Automatic annotation (TrEMBL):
Residues 1-16 have a biased composition (Low complexity). This is Response regulator transcription factor. Residues 173-238 form the HTH luxR-type domain. GO terms for molecular function: DNA binding. Residues 1-23 are annotated as: Disordered. SUPFAM superfamilies: C-terminal effector domain of the bipartite response regulators (SSF46894), CheY-like (SSF52172). Keywords: DNA-binding, Phosphoprotein, Transcription, Transcription regulation.
Amino acid sequence: MSDPTETNGTAGAETTGGAGERHVRVVLVDDHRMFRTGVQAEIGRTEETGVEVVGEAADVDQAVTVITTTRPEVVLLDVHLPGGGGVEVLRRCAPLMADAERPVRFLALSVSDAAEDVIGVIRGGARGYVTKTITGSDLIDSIFRVQEGDAVFSPRLAGFVLDAFASTDAPPVDEDLDRLTQREREVLRLIARGYAYKEIAKQLFISVKTVESHVSAVLRKLQLSNRHELTRWATARRLV
């Protein structure tokens, strides 16, 4: 699709046909065009999969517009988006999620497997959270499960949610971590895990120069000198 806010079909489309009786209308929300194109190619063969991609968006404002216009059954939502992130999309789409007749359900699909990201979108109303390492067939299955009202998580992420909602204590505020943007946190975690700049760039679909800029910003904000200190800092906070 040439326009990230492009939509297909109408908001009131019938949900029949394709892949037997299964059919679901989906909106893709991710700020990386290459990733959206890949997901579309993987899941959007409606006659085979039953998944109809009816729209795409690359930031928060586009996402709210497309979701409101198309009223899909399921939204695949990246956590880190320009304009306030996935949590902001969820906040602004709360009335659509609460619609008893035609609820719009959200499934987070992100490169991040950090507990705070998982818990944040689940508290915001998402029905599940899977990482971008998921296979195409598993993603399709997850979409249909969310459409039916199930909660879906990548295996190790479910524990974050259970721990968070079992505890009555609010997590402590980390003022240092709060200084970082969502993208800077992603880069920080990958640096702490030993990824090279080129590997980070490939995984996050950004340039090496952009990775370097994020690392410099993180070092400056945390008043650290090098990636070794970053790794120790992240490990001490269990961000790795």
